[in-house]
Every structure is written in structure tokens, then in C-alpha cells.
Amino acid sequence: MNIQAVLFDLDGVITDTAEHHFIAWKQMAESIGITIDREFNESLKGISRMESLERILVHGGVQDKYTDEDKARLAQEKNDHYVSLLSDLTPDHTYPGIRELLLYLQERNIPAIVASASKNAPKILNSLDLTELFKVIVNPEGIPGKPSPDIFLSGAAAVGADPAACVGIEDAQAGIEAIKAAGMYAIGIGDANLLKQSGADVVYPSTKEMFESPIWKS
Ligand code: BG6
Ligand code: MG
């Protein structure tokens, strides 16, 4: 495959912030009497902040109990907690092989793109000192969320790449579905059963194995 662009999810692919999201949602949910576990959390991965909140309220059977104002406050509380958990993020928190892959792509003039639902993406990339290695950080504002393909298509369009010649990397089921709906090659990071079900072309247990894969040389 002659790769024209590589599109990276952020949380759970570039660094461990998927775990920070889980911790912050769990605490917010508990504050209103809802318990969430890791299995349920899989259905939040890749999903926008407000949609995640809606899913948690439905999960707790209280979707009609809160006004839009209440929801905005709950989402703000979660985000404040989440951002406080990011305060000690340093370049050392970048997952293994990610910086190496970005440098490898840069040497070959293959654009790297961030296709994340997170509004905190620019801040996290700065903390990891990775911003300059990405050609584009897609702004998720106003773009239909994953599993819609839009965020991946928008990233490819920004660098003039043919989606069929793009590779997307995701840890979320919704994200893999979005990559496949965009017509791209999908690399999953994490649970092979889960991500293969969503259509991943290949799944690696972690970014370390992904970087060492012959896929980049073919
Ligand atoms: C995605 C995460 O990358 O970003 C989701 O997988 C998160 O868990 C979403 O809800 C939105 O992030 P943020 O930082 O804008 O609340
Ligand atoms: Mg993710």
C-alpha cells in the first residue's frame, strides 16, 4: 500500500488519556448515583463529551431527570476533573513507538493527522511535545462524531489524500467503524476480539507492536 496519510486517534492511541477519561466519568457518574464499569466504558470511547454524558444518564435510567443546564454543568465538572488529571502529562507519557512512527512518517513526507473527538487534543499534544509532528489536528467542533466517517474524511481532505490510501489508528470500536466507513485501512490497538468485530483490518495489543509491524515497510 502506498500510504498517502496516517490518521491517529489520540486518547488511548497516542497516550493513556482514555484511562483519565474513565476515571473522571466514573467519579461524575457516582456523584449522581450511577455506577459505570470498564465494559460500559468501551461504549464511551471515541464518543464526544456531551454524547458520553447522555449515554451515562441513559445507563442510569435518568435521562429525563436533567435539564440542558444541569447537563452542561455535569459535563463541565467532568472536564475540570479530567483536565486536572492531565496536569502531570509529559513527553514520557507518549505511548511506545508513537514518536518513532511520527518521525518515520516525517522522513518520508507522509502527513500525520490527529482525528480525535477531544476538544482537549491541542493541549495534550503540547504537553507531549508532539504538536509539530502533526500536519493537521482536525477540529471536532461541528463535525458528526464517530462512528460517522466525517472526522477521518475531513483529515484526509485537509492534506489532499485519497481515503483509500490512508491508514487510521484507533482504540475505540466507534473509531474503527468510522475509519472503515471512510474507506480507509483500520489499525486497532487493544482487544482483538472487540476491534475485529468493528471491522479492524489488523489489531495490535499495543502501539509498540504496531510500530514494529512490517505494515509500514510494505
Ligand atoms: C475521545 C475520547 O477521544 O474524546 C472520549 O475517546 C472523549 O472518551 C472524547 O469523551 C471527547 O473528549 P473531550 O476531551 O473533548 O471531553
Ligand atoms: Mg481513543
Describe, in plain words, how this protein is organized in 3D.
The protein is globular, with a radius of gyration of 17 Å. Helices cover 44% and strands 10% of the residues. The longest helix is centred in the middle third of the chain and has 18 residues, at 68-85. It has a six-stranded parallel β-sheet with strand order 3-2-1-4-5-6. By secondary structure, it is of the alpha/beta class. The protein binds 6-O-phosphono-beta-D-glucopyranose (BG6) and magnesium ion.
Residues in helix, %: 40-55%
Query: What best-fitting shape do the alpha-carbon axes yield?
Result: globular
Tell me the distance between the termini: 6 Å
Instruction: Give the distinct bound molecules.
Output: 6-O-phosphono-beta-D-glucopyranose, magnesium ion
Query: What order do the strands of the largest sheet run in, or round the barrel if closed?
Result: 3-2-1-4-5-6
Query: What is the string of helix and strand elements?
Result: EHHHHHEHEHEHEHEH
Mean pLDDT: 97
Total beta-strand segments:
6
> How many H/I helical runs?
10
Q: Assembly state here?
A: single chain
The main pleated sheet reads as: 6 strands, parallel
Query: Which structural class fits the helix and strand makeup?
Result: alpha/beta
> Strand percentage, roughly?
5-15%
Low-confidence stretches: none
Radius of gyration: 17 Å
